[in-house]
Amino acid sequence: MPEAVSSIAYEIDPDNAAQLADAHREAVAALKAADVGFVEGKLYRMEGYEGAYFDIWRWQSPEAAEQVTELRVTIRQVQAYIKLIESEPLYTEGTVVEEA
């Protein structure tokens, strides 16, 4: 079964950058511990856009990725991470087709 990804692009107050990294690390650990098919999360700071970030979460399957909306509400660490987002987040989902 193909792997899946979900991503989110957003902005935060630049003063919260250290707090964001900690919250991301805790959210990723909680998702892994929940055993919901979560593989990894990678947080990217967008160069040239102060306070802009892009986060990619990898899932074992498209079915696992579909849980992301519910997990944003049910896992406390994911809630804390999402609360740091100040802009309207842009969520996307997809299936890995090629990895080179």
Q: Note the run of SSEs as H and E.
A: EHEEHHHE
Question: Main sheet, how many strands, which sense, barrel?
Answer: 4 strands, antiparallel
N-to-C CA distance? 18 Å
As a percent range, the share of helical residues equals 25-40%
Low-confidence stretches: none
Estimated share of beta-strand residues: 25-35%
Number of domains: 1
CATH topology tier name: Alpha-Beta Plaits
Strand order of the largest sheet: 2-3-1-4
CATH architecture, please? 2-Layer Sandwich
Shape label = globular
The CATH C-level name is Alpha Beta
* Count of DSSP-assigned helices: 4
Average pLDDT number: 86
User: Which structural class fits the helix and strand makeup?
Assistant: alpha+beta
Q: What is the β-strand count?
A: 4
What Rg is obtained from the alpha carbons, in whole angstroms? 13 Å
List the helices and strands and how they pair.
Elements: E1 4-11, H1 17-33, E2 38-45, E3 52-59, H2 62-65, H3 68-74, H4 76-83, E4 90-95
Antiparallel strand pairs: 1-3, 1-4, 2-3
Can you give a write-up of this model?
This protein is α+β, with helices and mostly antiparallel strands and 100 residues long. It has a single domain (4-95), classed as 2-Layer Sandwich (Alpha-Beta Plaits). Helix content is 36%, strand content 30%. The chain has four helices and four strands. It has helices at residues 17-33, 62-65, 68-74, 76-83, and strands spanning 4-11, 38-45, 52-59, 90-95. Strands 2-3-1-4 form a four-stranded antiparallel beta sheet.
